[in-house]
Design goal:
The chain is mainly alpha-helical. It has 9 helices and 5 strands.
């Protein structure tokens, strides 16, 4: 049930985020409407002032000598020009207000559609939670009933991997994503020290190769400072979406050529080659590996870090079944420890 609430919280969080975006747009449009109303009041004041000035001018014209009519006519022309310019601004403001209203209507429709989608997802998640709980419960019972068989399978890594893949194939992609997200959240709350399975930050630059490279060339004190500075420089460069060390692909004929930016890492990039020449392959490969992971998890546009379940012993992504089995074992060990403590 706790896993289900976490899923509901995630959906609620998405709805709140979308609602917040729409609210910000509504506030922006409200500001535009207020600005329009202020401008309209100014126009009204100018119109009244113009009418008053015209009345005064007509009175003066009726009593003024001919030589005084020229300045008055100039003032009247200037007032007419100002009124025309103000009317043009008012027309532009009206058009902008119409566009703003259309955008606001579209935003409201988008919010309504998103709410309907989230409600539909909630309905889909409800049976999925029960399936996940039942699957974990079934896995726990199966492990308790056939401990010897599991030990035999664990002694054969290839067979264990095949069984895990067969079990995962019975789940839909959405169900697996939900389960892996829950497992990642649980693993992040556990102590990561010395565990075979855990969470790896995909796209995170490894610090160790930089420490080793500096230690091999500098004194201990200088190596520590240089390594920290060098690592920070490359970590910031990795986070910069404007740095794109990727191979370009030319498509089309000689008359119509297009150059596209591919996803393959260009290991001959000037900055990467400079790093390799100065500090060796270890630091160079660490940067390339971080870029490859970002590319694999589609994080090159925003350069964010993605959490992944990881089998540190095998050096690969952990299967869902491996993680469920591990969590089940942890629960058993905790239960046994509590019983022993109670007996004492």
């Amino acid at each position: 049930m706790e896993e289900g609430s976490n899923r509901d919280d995630a959906l609620g969080g998405r709805m709140k985020l979308i609602s917040s975006k729409v609210d910000s747009k509504i506030y922006f449009h409200k500001d535009a409407v207020l600005e329009y109303m202020d401008l309209k009041h100014i126009i009204g004041d100018l119109t009244e002032e113009k009418a008053r000035m015209e009345q005064e001018v007509h009175k003066r014209l009726a009593t003024a000598p001919p030589e005084l009519l020229t300045p008055v006519r100039e003032q009247l022309a200037a007032a007419k020009d100002e009124l025309a310019a103000t009317r043009a601004k008012l027309d532009a403001a009206n058009e902008e207000l119409a566009v703003t209203r259309e955008k606001l209507g579209a935003a409201n429709e988008e919010l309504a559609a998103t709410r309907e989608q989230l409600e539909a997802e909630k309905k889909e998640v409800a049976p999925t939670k029960e399936q996940l709980i039942e699957a974990v419960r079934h896995q726990d019972e199966q492990q308790s009933a056939s401990a010897a068989a599991l030990e035999s399978v664990e002694c054969q890594p290839s067979m264990s991997l095949t069984l895990c893949e067969l079990s995962e194939n019975t789940w839909s992609r959405d169900e697996l994503d939900v389960l892996r997200g829950m497992l990642i959240k649980e693993f992040l709350q556990l102590d990561s020290g010395g565990r075979i399975l855990g969470v790896k930050e995909m796209g995170r630059l490894n610090r160790k190769p930089f420490d080793e490279a500096c230690a091999s060339k500098l004194s201990p004190t200088e190596a520590k400072k240089t390594a920290s500075k060098l690592y920070a420089t490359w970590e910031n460069l990795l986070k910069n979406p404007n740095w794109k060390p990727f191979k370009t692909v030319v498509v089309g004929d000689d008359h119509h050529k297009s150059i596209l930016l591919g996803k393959d890492i260009d290991v001959d990039d000037d900055k990467l080659q400079e790093l390799k020449r100065a500090w060796g392959e270890g630091a160079h490969n660490a940067v390339v590996r971080a870029l490859v992971e970002m590319s694999e998890y589609n994080c090159l546009d925003d350069r964010t870090i993605t959490y992944e379940l990881w089998n540190y012993k095998a050096g690969r992504k952990a299967t869902t079944i491996e993680c469920v089995e591990y969590m089940s074992d942890q629960a058993k060990q905790l239960s046994v420890a509590r019983r022993r403590k109670t007996r004492r």
